[in-house]
Amino acid sequence: MTTRTPHIAFFSGDVTRSGGTENVSILIANALVQRHEYEISFVSLFEEASEPFFRIDGAIARYTVYDKPTHGIQHYFDTVGRLRKLVESRHIDVLVDIDGILDMYSLPLKHRTGVKVISWEHFNYHQNPSVPYRKLTRRWAAHKADAIVTLTEADRKLYEENAHPKCPVIAIPNPMQRITPESVYDATSKTIISSGRLTYQKGFDMLVDVAAQVLPQHPDWQWLILGEGEDRPMLEEKIARAGIGGQLILKGRVDDMDAYYRSAAMFVMTSRFEGLPMVLLEAKAYKLPIVSFDCETGPSEIIREKINGDLIPEGDLGSMAESIGSLIENTDRRRSYSVMARKDTDYFSKEVIVDLWISVLGSDV
């Protein structure tokens, strides 16, 4: 009798997007499929782009619940029904919901299909971006999911203290990629970079206010924002009003992130909240000095204060501007931060993290 290879499906809103959630999910899926222990696929509610922004291993299949973008709670029962048919027809054993809000579609399938559900928290327990009923899905997952994966130990404790889960809650950080060829820091660079979706969460509106304080004082510097999103019109207007359009540039969705990281002087993050931000791990991998708001979870587990970066009290625009200005004017400090950028990075090793995922999946398939 032949034993069927367990089928693990990563369930996404749209895996073709360019966000950190999609990035890390694809990294983990690509690594798992190379172990040849599982059949791996992605299931998206829909796909807006013909090809994913991040490379997906050719051995990984992609499926969609809808053929075209479909939004709204009014489609709830139709979505659950379509997802059930997909789970049954593709013999999916485990759904890894890469956004906890997707638990609302996958948890109802457990009784009818026997599929196991792992809820992967990419924000943190206190944040409910865009959808107010995310609080309800977190409580539902705490009682009905087979496991919850958080990105930080701090968030694992928040779940334990607030949701009283009946399933295991495991902290598994995002992996830091290995850069080849190894990055060489360019201390002569006069370019600041930031990246992420242009959304409220990422705080690019605050970034414009900070840039308006910093850039006029340093006219030979530029600041590039890499990413696209719904806040672009508002940001364009703010940049124009501040009169810094020649220095603060919205680059949109770029294909060659590597080139931008290699040519940057520093990385800045102004997020209002995060889980464990991939962009900071990428900046560390490229040996960049980092300045970041110290939002509730994430940055403080990546940055060693005054050793390889600066942690700024959340929302303190003046202190953020002062820190960036100080780094601009102190080349030796930037070099020192770069040298120490990869300190304490074993915890973020891809090999270690994939082993942790295999341990979780092994207990659930």
From TrEMBL:
Protein name: Glycosyl transferase family 1
Pfam families linked to this entry: Glyco_transf_4 (PF13439), Glycos_transf_1 (PF00534)
Domain Glycosyl transferase family, residue spans: 184-343
GO terms assigned for molecular function: glycosyltransferase activity
Domain Glycosyltransferase subfamily 4-like N-terminal per the UniProt entry, residue ranges: 19-175
Keywords linked to the UniProt accession: Glycosyltransferase, Transferase
UniProt cross-references to InterPro entries, sorted A to Z: Glyco_trans_1, Glyco_trans_4-like_N
